[in-house]
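Deliverable D5.2: sample structural annotation.
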Amino acid sequence: MALPKIDEVRQLNDQELAEEILATKRKLFDLRFQQATRQLEKTHEFKHTRHRMAQLLTVERERQQLSSTTEEA
């Protein structure tokens, strides 16, 4: 399974981005819970989910910086 592309994240609007971040955080929690109870079978999902979270947070931060620079100008 290929890692998700950041271009897909950049196409989301602010509301969808916030919802996706929340959903990804929930998924990471569920994965950690499954690992702790030894029910996790696909350990590679951690890598993919953490990668996705990094992409989402990166795009969110880029938008925050862009909006703060436009407010200063």
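Annotation notes: The mean pLDDT is 92. The CA atoms of residues 21 and 56 lie 6 Å apart.
The annotation will be released with the project's public dataset once the embargo ends.
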